[in-house]
Amino acid sequence: MLQLNNQRTAVMFIDMQNSIARHDQFQSTIEACQRLLTIARTHQVPVIFVHVRPYEHVKRSMRGESEVLLARPGSVPMDPKQYHIIDALPVLPEDHVVTKHVRSAFVGTELDHLLRALEVDTIVIGGIATNIGVESTVRVGADLGYNFVVAQDACAALSAEAHEASLKYSLPFFSRITTVDQLEFIGE
């Protein structure tokens, strides 16, 4: 078990929004995120939902998975509901919602200020896609001094290979990797 101080930890979900997490292949990831959300709320750990609403110029520059997950360049803008967090992960009034415009949740957002105001130094993170939004957020956040725990079963990518490569080759340099069931929140 990985013990975490519930007074200094937040749980963050990356891009668990209708336009991304609606794909059937993400059902087990959504279930793991639901377990993580329940654990966080039970232990009064702050919950942060991050959703992406890319600027038009960013959409045009995206390639590969990001294009597939969001919108094709030159396409009709998505219905605003596509940016909402999925119903399976209900946002409560006490939760925090951060809108990002690029891959990392820290770039151009109030996230760093929010975490400092909450006196958080450790972030348990899950979401889609492991190798894009999750990894980018972990990399930037680690450079800002935050400790990250990646709940690998609460993350996914469009391919198992991309998910595994991120977990094996990149994320271990910036975070601890575990599963939702291995997390234990304790008070001070």
Description:
Mean pLDDT is 90; it is low at 64-76. A six-stranded parallel β-sheet has the order 4-3-2-5-6-7, sandwiched between helices. Strands 1-8 form a two-stranded parallel sheet. It is globular, with a radius of gyration of 15 Å. The protein has seven helices and eight strands. It is of the alpha/beta class and 188 residues long. It has helices spanning 18-21, 27-42, 56-61, 65-69, 111-117, 130-143, 160-170, and strands spanning 2-5, 9-14, 47-52, 96-100, 122-128, 147-156, 176-178, 183-186.
Question: How is the topology of this model organized?
Answer:
Layout (H helix, E strand, L loop, with lengths): L1 E4 L3 E6 L3 H4 L5 H16 L4 E6 L3 H6 L3 H5 L26 E5 L10 H7 L4 E7 L1 H14 L3 E10 L3 H11 L5 E3 L4 E4 L2
List keywords for this structure.
188 residues; alpha/beta; six-stranded parallel beta sheet; two-stranded parallel sheet; 7 helices; globular
Q: Quick summary of this structure?
A:
With 188 residues, this protein is of the alpha/beta class. It has helices at residues 18-21, 27-42, 56-61, 65-69, 111-117, 130-143, 160-170, and strands at 2-5, 9-14, 47-52, 96-100, 122-128, 147-156, 176-178, 183-186. The strands form two sheets. Strands 4-3-2-5-6-7 form a six-stranded parallel β-sheet, with helices on both faces. A two-stranded parallel sheet has the order 1-8.
Measure the end-to-end span: 17 Å
- What is the H/E string? EEHHEHHEHEHEHEE
Strand order of the largest sheet: 4-3-2-5-6-7
Q: How many strand units?
A: 8
- Chain oligomer state: single chain
